[in-house]
Design brief:
- The chain contains 14 helices and 17 strands.
- It is of the alpha/beta class.
- It folds into three domains: 165 residues, NAD(P)-binding Rossmann-like Domain (Rossmann fold, 3-Layer(aba) Sandwich); 161 residues, 2-Layer Sandwich (Dihydrodipicolinate Reductase, domain 2); 83 residues, ACT domain (Alpha-Beta Plaits, 2-Layer Sandwich), CATH 3.30.70.260.
- A hairpin with a 4-residue loop joins strand 9 and strand 10.
- Helix 4 packs parallel to helix 5, helix 7 crosses helix 8 and helix 13 packs antiparallel against helix 14.
- The longest helix is centred in the C-terminal third of the chain and has 21 residues.
Length: 435
């Protein structure tokens, strides 16, 4: 008789219903590849009456998460409710009950990952979290297994589909940020409250997880520099095009052997670069290391079935370990717990980059030389200048500059001084250039 792996799901929303649909519709191919039957035996959600568009036996449904965790036949608990609590407590309870765990909860792992991973290791269990970063892109598995012998020195990612859709829309159709956001919400690509997506918080959760796996260090989420896309204007988009760039919200992590540079912010990428042409709701992650130079993984980063497929892949991977009797075949943190060491996170003021600067200035004589003088005072070299149109004296016009490689701290100091000038109409804007 074929062995069964029993699964309990906590959270029956978009992803949870996608997981159940995949396990039902693709049960035959799963059975043929796994050599066992994967069956959902309990589902917990506060709402057990709404139609999810998937077949479900009402007897499987409960409003009590404890019925999943305490279920004697459940081998794998899948947590899909999101947030910090009660997700953290439920996962730790499941581990204490001897259950393997699968989660898509990037916020939880970014903040409490060390605690959860330690609990899993102490119980000799497995945890899968592929769906936490990049949806259907197998980036977690790639770092933990495929790149296991590689010394990774940088990861750059477009890891939020909402932000990428908005910036793509602005670039391709020359529409405003507000209009692009509204369309994203109308199409279901953005939440009613899109703050985590457009302000870079979601991307920061993901790059924190990837950094831990890539370098074997805990990451204090509060040390990550985070800047969203709400300040990106159509003027920035059009000027970027003139200079040969596209603007993307990038999650960046770089390791130089002594410190880790982790940040999330809009960045200008050359139009010829593959990452610049990842548009719409697609995600992409670029990994650079000592053996392959670079690998770029592109795919759908969200959605019921793409994310559900990553969850199911984790369930099957854990099922294989259960069937073979393997324990901790792969460390959840990629590195052995005894090898985890804290690596300091670089202060953003220490980085060097090229910069795009946009000033709104009154069209008066001597403005350019005044601003150039302050930039020169802080050792900031100007590569090129564009003045967008002319206005009558006393009216504001955009003044655009691209700099040579400069120090972030000097850029910040210079802009603060420039913004105090009487010829400057509003706060200056800058975007870092990543090549």
């Amino acid at each position: 008789m074929m062995r069964k792996i029993n699964v309990g799901i906590i959270g029956f929303g978009t992803i949870g219903s996608g997981v159940l649909k995949i396990l039902q519709d693709n049960s035959d191919v799963i059975r043929k590849r796994l050599g066992a039957i994967v069956e959902v035996v309990k589902i917990a959600d506060l709402d057990i009456t709404s139609d999810r568009g998937v077949r479900v036996d009402p007897k499987l449904l409960t409003t009590q998460a404890q019925e999943v965790i305490k279920h004697p036949e459940v081998d794998v608990v899948v947590e899909l409710i999101g947030g910090y609590e009660p997700a953290r407590s439920l996962i730790l309870q499941a581990v204490n009950e001897g259950k393997h765990v699968v989660t898509a909860n990037k916020a939880l792992l970014a903040k409490h990952g060390s605690e959860i991973f330690s609990a899993v290791e102490n119980q000799q269990l497995s945890i899968g979290f592929e769906a936490a970063v990049g949806g259907a892109i197998p980036i977690i598995r790639a770092i933990r297994e495929s790149f296991v012998a590689n010394k990774i020195y940088s990861i750059e990612g477009i890891v939020n589909g909402t932000a990428n859709y908005i910036l793509s829309k602005m670039s391709d159709e020359q529409c405003s940020f507000d209009l692009a956001l509204k369309e994203a919400q109308d199409k279901g690509f953005a939440e009613a409250d899109p703050t985590f997506d457009i302000e870079g918080i979601d991307s920061a959760h993901k790059i924190a997880i990837l950094s831990q796996l890539a370098y074997g260090t805990p990451v204090n989420f509060g040390d990550i520099t985070i800047q969203g896309i709400s300040g990106v204007s159509i003027d920035d988009i059009e000027c970027a095009r003139e200079f040969g760039y596209r603007i993307k919200l990038l999650a960046i992590s770089k390791f130089d052997g002594d410190s880790v540079d982790i940040r999330v912010h809009p960045a200008m990428i050359p139009q010829s670069n593959l990452m610049a042409n990842v548009n719409g709701v697609l995600n992409a992650v670029r990994v650079c290391d000592d053996l392959m130079e670079e690998n770029i993984l592109i795919g759908h980063g969200a959605g019921s079935l793409p994310t559900g497929s990553a969850v199911v892949a984790d369930i099957i991977e854990i099922s294989r370990d259960i069937l073979s009797g393997s324990k901790l075949r792969v460390s959840p943190r990629s590195f052995l717990s005894t090898s985890i060491k804290t690596i300091p996170i670089l202060n953003i003021e220490s980085i060097d980059s090229e910069y795009f600067l946009r000033f709104s200035v009154f069209d008066n004589p001597g403005v350019l030389s005044l601003i150039s003088g302050i930039l020169g005072k802080y050792s900031i070299g100007i590569f090129s200048v564009i003045q967008k149109g002319r206005c009558d004296e006393g009216k504001a016009v955009p003044l655009i500059m691209m700099t040579h490689h400069s120090n972030e701290k000097n850029i910040q100091l210079a802009l603060r001084e420039i913004d105090k000038l009487k010829v400057v109409y509003e706060k200056s804007n800058f975007i870092r250039v990543e090549k």
